[in-house]
Design a protein that fits this description.
Helix content: over 70%
Largest sheet: none
Number of helices: 15
Distance between the termini: 15 Å
Radius of gyration: 19 Å
Oligomer: single chain
Mean pLDDT: 91
Shape: globular
């Protein structure tokens, strides 16, 4: 398979996963912002910070929901906005149209210009509907891929991109929780802290799965364990790492050689699997998240080098 095709499939999956992740971030921000005693400035500023958009505002600027809608939903020039990601996902898919099934292409193509018709006020009024639509687009594409795509190397490149982006998105969600608590550490362990942690679960559609594992007991340690270390929950970081190692292993077999990215993926699996939630909090949640994000970024670079992207 041509490296250009592999690159397009890899990034198609990443952009679509990123659009959904941004929608989930905003959903979590909404839930946190309406909690009693919430300081809206910090909730929304935290969302902008973890998406790398803090440079758009002055240091002490108040960030409102309308700013998030403008920059993270509608702004086609912002590379992490939902609109930008959907445009780029479709462009990558169009470049490799014959590598996709009809259902996969329709999931990418249907309503792709939908966000052009909104201004900030309209989008804010219909924000919940827009975010649900974005999540449904991503889920429809995944379902079409699961149900009809040949299990060849094209499929593996899609799954590698998806797993890498998903691991990073979960880590960013956890970092939002860290940043939101910075201004008022006295709320740790209180009711608001509890609701913020459960908001992370809801944003990842993990509340029911978490309940099956831990019952009705919610604690930062257990939620972190579930979202980072649980090998059965498909949005946990370790589950994504397992998928990365598995898919990269298949690609090594397809191509008859192993490269640095294959060793890195296996080392990431082993390193994270050896941790406990206690280890994570002892070393600091933010510090652990940042190191793990750095590992993901390094792996992305090594995958690009191994398969001659760009």
């Amino acid at each position: 398979m041509l490296s250009r095709t592999a690159e397009n499939l890899f990034w198609l999956a990443r952009y679509l996963e990123r659009a959904e992740a941004t929608a989930r971030l905003i959903t979590m921000g909404q839930r946190m912002a309406i909690l009693p005693g919430a300081h809206h400035r910090e909730e929304w500023k935290s969302i902008m910070r973890v998406t790398g958009c803090q440079h758009l505002f002055e240091k002490d600027a108040v960030v409102r929901e309308s700013d998030v809608v403008e920059h993270l939903v509608l702004n086609a020039e912002n590379p992490v906005s939902i609109r930008s990601c959907l445009i780029k996902a479709r462009a990558n898919g169009k470049s490799v149209r014959t590598a996709l099934t009809q259902d996969m292409w329709e999931a990418l193509n249907e309503g792709w210009r939908n966000l052009e018709s909104y201004d900030v006020g309209q989008a804010r009024a219909q924000l919940a509907t827009i975010l649900d639509w974005v999540k449904q687009r991503a889920m429809t594409f995944r379902g079409a891929t699961e149900g009809g795509h040949l299990r060849d190397e094209r499929h593996d490149f899609i799954r590698v991109g998806e797993a890498l982006e998903r691991a990073q998105s979960v880590l960013r969600l956890l970092d939002v929780k860290y940043y939101v608590l910075l201004p008022e550490t006295d709320v740790v362990g209180g009711n608001r802290d509890h609701y913020q942690w459960t908001s992370v679960l809801y944003a990842l559609s993990g509340n029911r799965a978490y309940h099956h594992v831990y019952g009705g007991v919610y604690s930062p340690w257990q939620i972190t364990d579930f979202l980072m270390l649980n090998r059965r929950f498909p949005r946990s970081v370790l589950y994504c790492y397992d998928q990365l190692a598995y898919r990269l292993g298949r690609l090594a077999q397809w191509h008859g050689q192993r490269r640095e990215c294959h060793e890195t993926a296996e080392a990431m699996v082993n390193g994270l699997a050896a941790k406990t939630s206690g280890d994570i909090f002892r070393h600091g949640l933010h510090e652990t998240v940042q190191r793990t994000l750095a590992d993901c970024n390094r792996l992305g670079v090594e995958i690009a080098e191994a398969y001659h992207f760009g």
